[in-house]
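Q&A log
Question type: sequence-to-structure
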Amino acid sequence: MDGPFVVDKYISELDIDFLPSGMLVKSDTGMGATHFELVSPRNSIIVEPIRVTAASKVQSARSSDRYLKDRLPLYVGSAVGNMQGSTDLEIIEYLQNNSIKYKKFVCVVDSLDKIMDAISFSDRFNADDFFLLIDEIDSIQMDSSFRRKIEGCLDYYSAQPVTKRAMLTATPLEFSHPLLKEEPITKFQLKNSTPRPTTLVNTSFWWQYILDHVMKIYATENNKVVIVLNRIQFIKLLINQMVKSGFDSSEIAVLCSTASKSEFPDHFCELEDTKFPKRVNFITSAYYSGYDICEDFHLVCYASFLSDSTMLSPAQIKQIYGRCRKPFSILSHYIVFRPRLRDRPQKPPKKTKQDREIPFVSEHGLLQEAKAIVNAEKCFNLNYPNNQVGGLDILKNFRAILVDALNDKKLNSVRHNEDQKKLVISYFFIDSKVENYRVYKDFYALDADPVARLTEAGMQVERDNYYSDLRLEPGELKSFDVKNSKLVNKLQSLLGSTEIEISEELDKMGKSNYPTANHRILSFMNQLKHYFPLEEVLGEAIQTLTTDGVPKRDNRAFKNWLVKKHFQTSDKDTPIRIFVEHFFKVGDKLTSEDVAQKMKDCIVHAQLKTLVGYTSSALISTMGKQGKELVTLAGNFVELKRHRKQNGGSVFSVIRIYPPMDKRPIEDVGMTVDELFFSKGEKKNAFG
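Response status: OK
Response body:
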């Protein structure tokens, strides 16, 4: 089969008993493909992008008197509303239940391995006995850039026989994986597609436009509004502005991932049925696709190229629009649009104001990079086999350096395989990066034609422009910056706790999602207790993360502080000390540029950015403001005496290199029971 096969409404109208294998492409959402697989007479595993979709499909089937009882589905995943997830034992019992002739599992990607493990232990079934259908594959491709585990479904998909697997989408993306490139494609098309009237509003005053639009609806009608806004800081800003304008805060919901739940203690909600929970509902990328809404509502999408997270594509907008199922409709649809603008010259001495640059990426380039990394690991493994003393630890560190270095560039083109034993190419991540660049060029760039792209996606587009004289108060947007606020708030809550309590909380924090500080940074801060009281460590960290109590958007002061602490607590054989002593000689006379360059060389050669967990390229340039910061940083390693030159500028004399700090007496250190048991008085260093 290849199609296109034309239907009036549903794929079930066709004279077929089963969905075909390979890539299944629908012209529209809501054509009943997953339902068709659920009722088909064969064993199936259906993978959905989000829990609410998987749970609702099972709940709908089990509550229907018309549904065939010999193929009742089982939901596998965490609880959603009244639908509980299945335990390992319940999965095994389901497999053994003779009254269920055709086994139908419905799960999210993260739970697929649970089903496969249960099948592998069964004496009645093999994985080959099931048809594996991955729904909304484009969402899984794009989500792989920040949900690394979900690409594991590709490993299971590849292992299935070619006749026992299929991927489903209404908005297909290109694949870089060689196997998926060769998958047969079957197309299904509606005879008459539903029109999607859309207004494209060009504006730089996005928040004021959305606020005016929502408040007008709020004042004149009772219909719900859905705002697609994939940036937590902006959602907080709009909620604050809405409440100031008289909107009832209890009528606002934020539907986002559970990882961001703590950001919205008063507004976080999960979708538990086919209706949105409140009058105004903000949705993030966790709710772009994969669920059905059975009510009318107004839709507002914020699409801006100024941030990767808000750079909606026409395909994603089509998916979001398609959440509304017939006979219900979207009452109005506005895309608040911020494309790239031409650089705006300013009067001297200001610099030309420039929009951000989107660096070129290509599938070929990303694949070559990924292959080089994978081959490098293979070479390293030959020289440090796992059975060699200490070899495994060396290999783990090597992998960590490689993966962290790629993370630093936001190019996660390799990943660990399912058993964590080797690095493999992250094809879905490569797909997502290539798609992001294509969306920028075709939809947001200066020479792009956004109306044409939306028309191709089935939108009937009208254009509008919006301007406002209103401005935010100075620092108002900054005060909602989520990047550091979550970490700052948590650290501030620990002040006044005992050292053991702080230590235990830092350990717990390492297992959570803190954008500014990963597990390695938090573990390092915890280990500083061997040299400094932890309350002192918290105070210094908070000071570098805030200005007048408000979290900073710039993390360079915090990162420089981490580097300083690392040097203070490192012994003479640590790489950073070796390179500082190599580049800085007592008695040297150095210009500011010399100091900045030598400091940069120390950081790069010692790979300190990777070890400390940097995710920014702040320590690259030695010129201007960053060069001054490098000189300041060098003052944490080396005692420098500054000499003013008569014709301007400065020369620094190297007086000495600061020696390592002495450890605190062990009895003064807040050691947990586990640490005392683990170390027997023997301390791990800051990086394990």
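Response note: Residues 479-668 form one domain.
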